[in-house]
Design a protein that fits this description.
Layout (H helix, E strand, L loop, with lengths): L3 H4 L1 E2 L4 E4 L5 H8 L2 H4 L10 H18 L3 E6 L2 E10 L6 E7 L8 H14 L6 E6 L4 H9 L3 E8 L2 E9 L3
Parallel strand pairs: 5-6
Antiparallel strand pairs: 1-2, 2-3, 3-4, 4-5, 6-8, 7-8
Helix pairs in contact: 2-4
Length: 171
């Protein structure tokens, strides 16, 4: 059973809830967009079948770890997905997010990241949160830096150069 303090979250403008298979239409509307996937090692937009596989994996992550990726809602509509996951080979919870391009540049990423960090360092009592970002993704680099992350190193992720950012719990 999910910890509701972690699973259901609200910010000033956003509602966060665990992803569900019913989010397929919204996932496809986001991950099928070339501009959303352009920073992946293989920047091919997702098919509906691949979006369904992604959602299944994310639902299982919640079931196994009681944490994962949330659907990010604005006024009841899904505008993105993001969360805190365990990334094999890395220490700390991995912070990631993707927003529909119609919602870029409005501060939603920063608002989401602040709430995810509140969960990580609050009820989850994480010692470290990481963010893996491609060097060319300057908007995401800025979001991480504004949220207090510091660049730790360059790493190879799925065969492509990425930057490893980290933020540690205070105290």
């Amino acid at each position: 059973m999910l910890d509701q303090e972690i699973a259901q979250r609200r910010t000033a403008r956003l509602t966060l809830r665990p992803v569900a298979m019913g989010d397929l239409k919204a996932a496809y509307a986001i991950y099928s967009r070339p501009e959303v996937v352009r920073h992946r090692p293989d920047p091919v937009p997702d098919s509906k079948a691949l979006c369904a596989q992604r959602l299944e994996k994310e639902v299982r992550h919640w079931e196994k770890h009681d944490i994962g990726r949330w659907a990010i809602l604005k006024d009841g509509a899904v505008i993105g997905f993001g969360g805190l996951t365990h990334k094999v080979g890395f220490f700390g919870l991995n912070l990631s997010y993707h927003l529909h391009p119609d919602h870029w540049g409005q501060g939603y990423a920063q608002e989401f990241v602040a709430e995810a960090l509140a969960v990580a360092f609050g009820p989850r009592q994480a010692q470290r949160v990481i963010g893996l970002v491609r060097p060319v993704n300057l908007a995401s680099v800025r979001v991480l830096e504004k949220a207090g992350f510091a660049k730790v190193s360059e790493v190879l992720l799925e065969g492509s150069l990425s930057l490893l950012y980290a933020r540690h719990a205070k105290g």
